[in-house]
Give the backbone structure.
Amino acid sequence: MKKAVFHTLGCKLNYAETSSFMRQFRDRGFTVSDSITERADVCVINTCSVTEKADRECRQIVRRARRHSPDAYIIVVGCYAQLAPEQIASIDGVDLVLGASEKFAIFDHAHTEFIKEQTPRVFTSPIDEATGFGPAYSFDAGGRTRAFLKVQDGCDYSCSFCTIPLARGESRSQSIDESVKQAVKLVAEGFKEIVLTGVNVGDYGRKDGVTLLNLVKRLAGVDGLKRLRISSIEPNLLSDELFDFWVSSDVLVPHFHLPMQSGSDEILRLMRRRYISNYYCDLIHKIRDRSPRAGIGVDVIVGFPGETEEHFEETYRVLVNLPVSYLHVFTYSERENTPASFYEYRVDPAERSRRTHMLRILSVKKRRAFMEMFIGKEAPVLFEESVKNGYIKGLTPEYLRVAIPHRNGIENTEEMVRITSLNGEVAYGELLRRNLNNANTKNDRAPFGLPVVQE
């Protein structure tokens, strides 16, 4: 039996798509693994190109694959493959490069026996011709607890720093009926939580005359689904109607991830974002008022061209005063063929690193303050299947990771836990022996406030 190994760079959407590639190989009799260090006949690398580091990582992964499997047939797909196919084809050992439209048809483009040739083969189409969707889902390494379901792809936004529209094409969505059909299948396979993924999930269905609200209402009615989570949503796309349903639903969890990118209106304008800082701040306070213990994550980019020390301090002040739970901090990276790559004023790399470090320290403080408000409180935890050092971990609806001493039979179940202590980014608690798998947990979330993090 032949073996195929896979390696994924980038976002949860990429992981969901890699899982669909793995199923294609498994259906054709291959054994599959997500460990690139295992010896294999075929190696598939799914790439990202959000930052320059992702491009460099792709080259490193190809070299690593060759060390462990010198004779393997190496296939590179994904965003980097779409943007720089000839560059990838020049890497020693690469046999096949597939772009955005071609990656879901690996067996149509590769020789059946995956025979290496003297020169690599490249198949890419102009990105403006990308119309296919490529259904995909994946699940956490911890077991069949959370599934990541792809419902949207591509993006019609034109943020000045982003290569995704160049790599994935225009926004397009999977139909509601097909999404519900896949959700029903996932629940039947044992998943308790589904996370909706995409490039711009909030734009779901716009070209088809439906909305993300229409989709989540249907998915919330899937029998047996305990939790529905939205991976990320643009702040300007969180409509009042969607928000009202979100905070009142027993299935849609109180966890919001909202990209901010900058707290400076001038930098937001240069980034071509579709909101101003005050709008974003008002939205965060609105969420906190309606859902006091919600988890709220923020994306922010540091060192964008034109970002002065005053701009950065403005962003820092905004974030200090926002009642959010954690930050995802990205250091700006120049990307070819983006408008921002032509901006004249460049922030020195060392200064970018300093600002990044400052915000990551702030994120640690924010996360700690968020976690501390759970101490002594009860929370429903959906436990994973993996056990380490005698502890089993899981997630609350608010995206708080919780660990308790392992008990037999609680894997992939939702149990009530009292939080007793913290260690790093993990909360520890005691099991209250209250099985919630057939219960409504909405009323078990007692309200409490989030303290302000001081500088």
